[in-house]
Amino acid sequence: MGNPRSVVGFGLALFLATALAGCGSGQASSSTITTVEAKAHRVTSHVCERNALDGVHGSDRLKVLSPCAAFQGTVTQKPVKNPDGDVSFEARPDHGYASMLNAHNRSEGGLHIEIVPRDQPGCKRGQTVRVGDVPDLGTCSGRHIAAPALGAHVRVIGPWVLDLHNNWYEIHPAWSVKQLGQ
Asked: What is the average pLDDT score of the chain?
């Protein structure tokens, strides 16, 4: 067996070499940041679905960062109904959730959140979703998720995604929107 001091020295040198291997430019890559952020708010919940983008119109524009994430904040934009049937709103993050926003989100007032037609009130479980001539909206989930009021403090669960067309982060679709006590 070798000298214990040289074994410890070799181990320390190997550790430092491995730890410092990514250093050089002084900047973290955006994919590293995204991975850390996604893990920070990832949840396990009975509301999470296997297919993160089921019922989403034009899902090819969305990049899934976390298949099931939680977000808490205050609604800063009155919910609006979009042409594809989605109901969308913005929410300013609570402390600890600001990492789920990028510069575009901050300029818009918060995280963009969308409730798809298959999860909205009045959609009967198993019924085919139809909104005008918008194709492939799936079948109703029976969730009956109502849009929150402006100023409501909410906890939202759903896939955390990057909308490649708008260059902002979203929870889309929102599988749960619960109003929290004031």
From this structure: 81
What pLDDT was estimated at residue 154?
A: 97
Dihedral angle over CA of 71, 72, 78, 79, nearest 10:
40
Q: Which contiguous run of DSSP H or E holds residue 19?
A: helix 4-20
Domain contains 21: no
Q: What is the CATH number of the domain that holds 87?
A: 2.40.50.140
Contact present, 174 and 148 (Cβ < 8 Å): no
Query: Which domain does 59 fall in, by range?
Result: 30-179
Is the Cα dihedral 124, 143, 74, 35 positive or negative? Answer: negative
Q: To which residue do tokens 């009956």 refer?
A: 144
**Single pTM value for the model:** 0.75
